Amino acid sequence: MTSLQIAEITGKTHSNVMRDIRNILEQLEEKHKFNFELMFKITKLGNNAERKDPYYLLTKKDCLLLASGYDANLRAKIINRWEELEENKRELSRKDLALMVLQAEEEKERLALEVQKKEEEKQAIIEETKPAVVFTECVKNASTNILVRDLAKLITQNGYTIGEYRLYDWLVENKYLIRHKRWSRSKNKYLFDYTPTQRAAEMKLFFVTENAIMQGGNPTFIKHTCCVTGKGQVYFLNKFKSLAAV
């Protein structure tokens, strides 16, 4: 409470209240046990001037000490005012507490909904990818190797359109296969054989079969047939799936 408020409550002039406080401070031996903080009310005047009017900020203990020098009616007014202030403070505290409880409940509900939403999204992803996972496991564990043209069909069925020759070109350009050019007498044209690169061989993406081509009862050359392993099928399906998503 301020000395200005005390003046208003008691009907005394503020200058008289200030005088009473100064008298107390002059007589008081244990000043350190009280507050009586001197403040200034600043009033703006013209020409950038200002006026500083002093007043005191009092604690409840300060007010009771000051009121002890007044008559019973003035003391009662000061005490009643303090009770009003404390009751308002308690009421505010109760409201703050109720608000905090309400906010905590709302936050708890929000977090629960957030957890539920994340769980639903997680389940949706699991359900969405379940067929792909099953397919991947089947392919990975399959003992059957397939030709590159069959891999091209498989990739196309899974969302990325590509033919056999384009797939061969892609595998060569991306250093999975090495292209070997040879002349075919029977077909009277150049043909291509493919073998895995060192990297692809180490990754076990391909399986190569060798067939001896016979002419006149004698082997003339070895034909390599490059097949895609189960692991390779999974690898390239995922690779082209990521390309399709770009």
From TrEMBL:
Keywords: Coiled coil
Domain Antirepressor protein C-terminal residues, every copy: 124-241
Annotated organism of origin: Bacteroides intestinalis
Protein name in UniProt: Antirepressor protein C-terminal domain-containing protein
Top-level taxon: Bacteria
Coiled coil residues, start to end: 75-128
MF terms (GO), sorted A to Z: DNA binding
